Amino acid sequence: MSNMDNYNNNCDNNNKDDDNNRILLVDDEVDITIVYTMGLQDNGFKVDAFNDPLQALSDFKSGSYDFALIDYKMPKMNGFELYQEIRKVDTRVKVCFITAFDVYNGDIKKQFQDSSDSMRQEGKEDSDVKCIIQKPIELDELVKRIKEELNS
Amino acid sequence: MASVAAVVLAVSIFSYQYSVLTSNRIVDIASGEVRSNTRIEAHDISQILTNKLQTVGALLQTLADSPAIHNNEYKRADTVINTRQNSSTDFTDFYMWLNKDGKINWISNINQSVYQKYKGADLSYRPYFIIPKQTHTVYYSSLIESNDKIPRLYISYPVLNKTGTSNNQGRGILTGVVVTSIRLGTLGNFLKDQLYPQFNSTIGLLDRKGTILYTTGTQQYAGENIFGNKFQSVLASSLHSSDSKNLLNDLIRDSLQGNTGSKDIPINDKVNTIAYQPVAVNGKDFLILYISAQHNVASDVGALIIQQQYFTVLMVTVIGGVAFIIAFLVFSWNKRLEAIVKVRTGELKIANDSLAESNQQLALSNKQLALANQQLKIHDKMQNEFINIASHEMKTPTQAILGYSKLIQRHPEKRDEMIEAISRNASRLQRLTSDILDVTRIETGSLRLNLEKFDLNQIISDIVDDYRNEIERSDSDVKLIHQGGNEIIRIEGDKNRLTQVISNLVGNAVKFTTQGSITIKAEIEKEQDNKALVSVKDTGSGIDPEIMPKLFTKFVAKSNAGTGLGLFISKSIIEAHGGKIWALNNPSLDGNGRSMGATFTFNISLSKSGDKVTH
Known about the structure:
Helix content of chain A: 40-55%
Distance between the termini of chain A: 36 Å
Structural class of chain B: alpha+beta
Shape of chain B: rod-shaped
Largest sheet of chain A: 5 strands, parallel
Radius of gyration of chain B: 78 Å
Radius of gyration of chain A: 15 Å
Number of strands of chain B: 18
Strand content of chain B: 15-25%
Largest interface: A-B, 26 and 24 residues
Number of strands of chain A: 5
Order of helices and strands of chain A: HEHEHEHEHEH
Oligomer: heterodimer
Strand content of chain A: 15-25%
Strand order of the largest sheet of chain A: 2-1-3-4-5
């Protein structure tokens, strides 16, 4: 476990010169952050991974990331709340949510929509969260999705 | 009932009033009839009498004009006179021929000896001689008492010689007077015969001086003046009311003036109509005729009508009585019906009440059903949520396994770590699967207990041994204490399931305790000696007060490594054994208010038999 964490940290400063590849990853499951970080790093992304959303928020600086991959269900602060806080600081960063919930299930979908609506009412322009990635996902597929989002 | 009586009474009164009205009207009509009949009869009979008297007068005139009389031819005159007498014998008493000096020349209707006796008798003092002699006109006498005491009326006619030198009146010289007489009795009989046979009336005749000539029934007043003391005293005694007497006298006075008329006068308590009519002969009022008729018919009709009234009243009363009886019958029948209806209504009410009760029960059942339905919906929602969360929980280790499996090919240098990670996630998945299966069993009610008798401390001992080994393998210095492990606490239950519960509790304690101790104890409950208490006390982080109320529900208390289902499953297993499970944060001992870990406790029934348990 400790080795994996090291790996996670070691990857932080890779490929600094390459634009448009800095990724913020927030997920409370350690195994998930390890797997996703490794998978993304293998494809040339620079990844900052956090298991605690509050930690992620406190370390967040505007313009530090091109892309944020945020787990929806987390203790202390859910993905949407974190997203809202990030948006207050950085309006540019592209965001995808990642969740093990079935997004096609009515209840979960409603939760997403409600969160989305509340953001729209607050006048956030980039409030329409369309990008939801469902767990489990093949690492190659994950990379492909993120690249699509970045180029869109 | 009262209304029926009122109707009967009203009908009776109305009927009586109507009868009175009708009877009065009928009496009026009948009286009117009597009045008009009386007047007509008076008029008719007066006319008949006039005609009769004129006929007699005419006969007398022809006699006076006959040559035999003129020539004093006695023998022939006798024949002529007798002829006249024969032709009017029903009415006239006799004919008589007086010479110019008032002496009897001839007299009819008497035998020779009587004739010889009266022949030459001087009657010149008689008005029936004097008046025609002076006036040369016909004379109608008043009542005259004759020599033979028979009351008679006389009519006389002058015999005038017109062929001789004319006298001062130019009607010739009086050579004699012819006279005829009418007996009052004959006149009375004649009049009586003229009365209408179907009309019950009486007749009276006065001369124009007021002398009574004839009255029906009796002749004793004939010749009396009507205003004389004798008749007036009779009137006073027979007419009870002085008004009636005055009325009658007024009537007679009026009639003596030559007037025609009629009046109603009560006589002997009965109304009589008296009609009067003058009998004028040759334009001279000679006699006054009276017709009197009692209003018998009217009073008969009245009596009949009163009878009718009584009959009507009787009929109405009888009908009313019958109606009353019918009404009474209907009323009592109604009462009976009412009573029956009342009974039925009561029965219906009872039925209704029980129906209402059933309804109420039904409503209650419905309510319960609605509640059950709601609970079912909630349950359904919870089930749905459970599936969502369970699916979420299962996808997370799946994602890890999937990721590591991919990465292991690209990073062979981290192969061991990754295999361990895969193994860890796989076992998490296995636990999760097992727990989800248990939850499903619990929630579908298909959790089966394999009951057996065993010693609680024995399974605790085994569990403690397992965890002690685990703790020893880690760096933790937490002590695991099995308190009172030598006491045999024999219970009957599912050994595997209870092992699962205790293991879950100890496992949780181990997870949340980084230092201090975990004490596991089984004992007989002090208050209820038929129960055993099992407690797991730790010195860990304690239970978050926020999740305390929902501690034993699914996915609430979740550690990194746990499934979040353990306490729910433990609670269900204990409850399936008839026991209870609860958790408390330990009271602070160090004085700084920090929780000193938590204690989980459950109770379970002891085995009833005191059989020994072999170790």
